[in-house]
Amino acid sequence: MEVIIGTLSGFIIAFFAEPIKQFITNSIKRNNLRKAIHYEVFHNWSVIDSNSKTEDKNILEDSPILFATKLLLRSGIRNECYLHLINQETALFYQMKEAANINHLYSYINSLYEWSKVSDEESKKLNPIPLMEGFVSDVEELLGTGEIDKRLMEKVAGLKL
Predict the structure, then answer these.
(1) What is the signed CA dihedral for 56, 61, 65, 68, rounded to 10 degrees?
(2) What span, in angstroms and rounded, lies between the C-alpha atoms of 34 and 95?
(3) How far apart are CA 161 and CA 114, in angstroms?
(4) DSSP state of 98
(5) How far apart, in whole angstroms, are the C-alpha atoms of residue 44 and residue 66?
(6) Nearest to 64 by CA among 23, 115, 103, 105
(7) How many Cα atoms occupy the beta-carbon half-sphere of 46 within 13 Å?
(8) Is the pTM of this model over 0.90?
(9) Chain-centroid distance, C-alpha 81
(10) Dist. CA 21–CA 26, nearest whole Å
(11) Cα–Cα distance between 81 and 155 in angstroms, integer?
């Protein structure tokens, strides 16, 4: 009888322990991913904001490809974390309350990357400044309305926004 009770109690504990372990693991992973994507958004926001206000706009008129190279490569606009979330952590990404807003913000980043791939002649017809200004204003609006976690952004950036 004691063997049956021991076996039954072990089964019940194991039955409930695995889902709890999975829940805790996913919660920790989701929080780490939220921190990473908020840091990447902050980094892109600061880079794009500073580049959209610089005197480098005259480079844009002369050589859009040079401007794109400077903006995307030397300034370091990042999208690795976002791509990782979309491609490998899709379920956890869409559990984040900010997922739709982050997708919206990265549509600007993706457009900037696409713009940087066109020929110099084609790129002269396009202007990335509205994309850059749109990204910056949307980040500021989402922070202001609380649709992106301002406290988390401040924590990962180490700044008061």
Answers:
(1) 40
(2) 10
(3) 30
(4) T
(5) 19
(6) 115
(7) 12
(8) no
(9) 6
(10) 9
(11) 18
